[in-house]
Design brief:
homodimer, seven-stranded parallel sheet, globular
Chain lengths: 219, 219
């Protein structure tokens, strides 16, 4: 008799990719541009989201947000103050978001009313990069307190990203950080990646990130 | 016929726990106290290790180090300068160390010559907490640029830790960080956890961490 082979990992990824594709179709149907924000714990993902969403709202561009965390409502509570629809997903231990979680999130957002959907992934520079979500654009938030060699130490995350935001540049006078060295490591992983240094605290250069987003809405 | 049930996840964990137990036995046999250092990317694990190992060497306490990274030799090169035996484990994508990797590491260390074995885990506040390694003491490195609510957002990591080092206190004048709020979140997760605020950069309070280690060698 022929042996039946089940490769658990591959099977799981195939199912995930299928749902990711469904998410993509739904979002496209509603003309929504979607952005997946990833990065280590405390890199400043939520703070960047706050400033970015506020700026887009001022431009009358409606946003929706899916917040991914293992536990707690900290981030969704911060974002909901901005008066945008937010769905909090608690993974209950899982170290990343999967396409099925995004599907649930999408079902709970008023899709007809929004132009841009942000996803804030679980704070983790490794695992979120392994799961397709069906999102248009991947962002990694680095920050200058992490050190310059992170792109070389977490290559997958940086290789799947379209944009890297180097956050906390307001700490430049105090924290030693060699931007050229960081950029060199990054370009080794991905040549054509867009790099925007920002400060979520002061708002510096957030307008460059917003410009990037706005240019992509109509695509 | 009775159905045979294979629960893949549980099976993997059981095998891991078995090897972790073997690691524990080997280390105990050699009278080695072992420490597993965990924390997010760029929290300062390697810098703390550098200062701690240097101090222990000055006290004539021999150390060995296992460095865990997805890719690269950055951390092991930094530690090897101190003239201690170091083994670099590259997980090749995996987001955490497992007991089998530690076993391989142990086999490559001169066990008869060392009193303390440090393990630096992959930079990740989630997954490393899920895998037993057979190590005596778990340390989580937090840092003040991450924000105060991290223990509530990454509860498993903090709940399995014996000591939390709050790093980068040299940035206190510049970075807003409410130590009491951090401690309150932490104590909700684990009441009896030991908290040591440190600066790997200036070396401040590293002696308190060293004191903790030295007190536990003879146990």
């Amino acid at each position: 008799m022929k042996v039946k082979r089940i490769v658990v990992g591959e099977n799981l990824f195939a199912k995930n990719d299928e749902i990711a594709e469904e998410n993509k179709v739904i979002l496209k149907k509603h003309g929504i541009f979607s952005i997946n924000i990833m990065g280590g714990p405390g890199s400043g993902k939520t703070s960047i989201l706050e400033k970015t969403v506020a700026t887009l709202m001022d431009m009358n561009i409606a946003c929706g947000v899916i917040e991914g965390d293992i536990a707690g409502m900290f981030d969704s509570e911060r974002i909901s103050v901005l008066n945008v629809p937010v769905v909090q997903i608690n993974t209950g231990g899982a170290c990343h978001l999967e396409a099925m979680m995004i599907k649930k999130g999408i079902e709970n957002l008023p899709l007809a009313d929004i132009r841009i959907m942000f996803v804030e992934n679980v704070g983790n520079l490794v695992c979120p990069a392994e799961f397709k979500l069906g999102i248009d654009c991947n962002i990694t938030v680095a920050n200058i307190t992490e050190g310059e060699e992170k792109p070389a130490k977490y290559p997958l995350m940086y290789s799947i990203s379209d944009v890297v935001l180097i956050n906390k540049i307001d700490l430049m006078p105090t924290v030693e950080f060699d931007v050229d060295r960081f950029n060199a490591y990054l370009k080794e992983i991905k040549k054509d990646i867009k790099i925007i240094p920002v400060s979520a605290k002061t708002g510096k250069n957030i307008e460059h990130f917003v410009k990037y987003i706005v240019e992509h809405i109509s695509e």
